[in-house]
Amino acid sequence: MKVNGTHYRSLWWDEDKAALQIIDQRWLPHDFRIQQVDTLQDYADAIVEMRVRGAPLIGATAAYGMALAASIDPSNAHLDKAWEFLDKTRPTAINLRWALNRCRAHLVTLPEDQRAAAALALAHEIADEDVEINRNIGLNGLEIIRKIATGKKDGEPVRILTHCNAGWLATVDWGTATSPIYHAHDAGIPIHVWVDETRPRNQGALTAWELGSHGVPHTYITDNAGGHLMQHGLVDMVIVGTDRTTRRGDVCNKIGTYLKALAAQANKVPFYVALPSPTIDWTVSDGVKEIPIEERSQREVTHVQGLTEAGEISQVQVSPHGTPGGNPAFDVTPNHLVTGLITERGVCAATPEGLEGLFPDLSRIAKSA
């Protein structure tokens, strides 16, 4: 995607500096800052503090973290230590462990003197794979949007509701939920996006910033406006991302997703989830019972960050002094509320049969593990 006319990925390897560069997302949409990640502690801090965020991007970042670890000390003991250190950063998004497992499993089969170069090559591969996965999610989701558009009056837009930021900032490029939107816009299909603010971190503002940079018509709305818009026939479809999807199709995503799914079902609005295959957790069936939900800092709830009239980025407290804040970061939407899963291989039902039908190879590997 482009920022002020220049193409960026959300992370990239600087060959001259031999170091990873990331967009520090804590300052967006008001300031565009790039940070170099030099140490394993820097990698952990970037993930924990949400300098990088979104399941696919966390996974790619972790892969580069393992590459750094291999360059420092390629021994099995050190790789195991790095795996454990990075695995503790965030518990919900499965891409983190997926990437860590993939890197460690590959490296331990190699002689130690080959591991550093192989680890970096694998990190590049994981990043490039993510871009292609998300591009194909966009092409498959485009067909859904195109079909809805055929039933609209000339010039009337397809109205799409999003929640959280599942855009290119949450991936290496394209995004998951936004990829079909970008493809539809680029194909000349009139669309309008309702962008939920997504408290407490207001990640919808990142989506709005992205869409604005790409020229996609959109409106930034409060989290609780979605149901009202659906009641009045102003939403044609919902597309959200996912941080972990179970083998039966339960979807764990940013807190508030479940309520959007309930409102969509009540108002007969199709509810789609953009799902890259590395986000499928084949070891889990019942998402409500089995997926750990990250509890983040109460300060994210009691304070908000924004731009002052003086042009400074600042935080202010919005809650009464002394009132504690509860901050579960994710919720689980049961599969029966999901119209379909948009993957890089096609669209399927949110059922075990649907997922196994598109990914028989991955299902077999999981069953044999």
UniProtKB/TrEMBL annotation:
This protein's UniProt keywords: Amino-acid biosynthesis, Isomerase, Methionine biosynthesis
Pfam family of the protein (one): IF-2B
Molecular function via GO: S-methyl-5-thioribose-1-phosphate isomerase activity
Active site: D243
Chain positions of site Transition state stabilizer: C164
EC number: 5.3.1.23
Positions with a binding annotation for substrate: R53, G54, A55, R90, Q203, N253, K254
Biological process, per Gene Ontology: L-methionine salvage from methylthioadenosine
Role played: Catalyzes the interconversion of methylthioribose-1-phosphate (MTR-1-P) into methylthioribulose-1-phosphate (MTRu-1-P). Also catalyzes the interconversion of 5-deoxyribose 1-phosphate and 5-deoxyribulose 1-phosphate. Part of a bifunctional DHAP-shunt salvage pathway for SAM by-products.
Recorded family membership: Belongs to the EIF-2B alpha/beta/delta subunits family. MtnA subfamily.
HAMAP family, per the entry: Salvage_MtnA
Protein name: Methylthioribose-1-phosphate isomerase
Native species: Roseibium suaedae
Lineage start: Bacteria, Pseudomonadati, Pseudomonadota, Alphaproteobacteria, Hyphomicrobiales
